[in-house]
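Most newcomers find our protein records easier to grasp once they have seen one. There is nothing in a record beyond a sequence line and a structure line. Getting from the letters to the tokens is the skill we practise here. An example says more than a description, so a record of this kind follows:
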Amino acid sequence: MQRFLTGNCKVLVNAIGTNDAAIGSAYMRYRGLKVGLLNKKDLPNQTFMNKLVSRIAMAFVVRKNNRGKESLVFFERWQDKSPINYIIKTTLEGIKSSIGLPGAKKKLKRYNKKVAASHKEQRK
């Protein structure tokens, strides 16, 4: 789980969603971005390890400034959750992809393999 500490940003997410998944692009321009990692089990009390991992992520993974570039948005819908949850999660995936956190391409490849396998089984 991430927490945005400081920074100015503008976000535009353009995605097309079906009952199964959403795919599209996100455009996020930001300056002075700082994020921190949170422990889901103990939100008020963050450990030294969380703070250390946050600093490492800020130093090596997350870009502090960008001039605005397009990034991939992909989110596979959880069928038991509401459509509002789907929209929010899709937008958050776009933000994560824009700040440089990996995962969207890998999730899309995994989803495409799953869909191809299900189509293959249906043809038999």
The CA atoms of residues 74 and 108 lie 6 Å apart. Residues 2-123 form one domain. The mean pLDDT is 78.
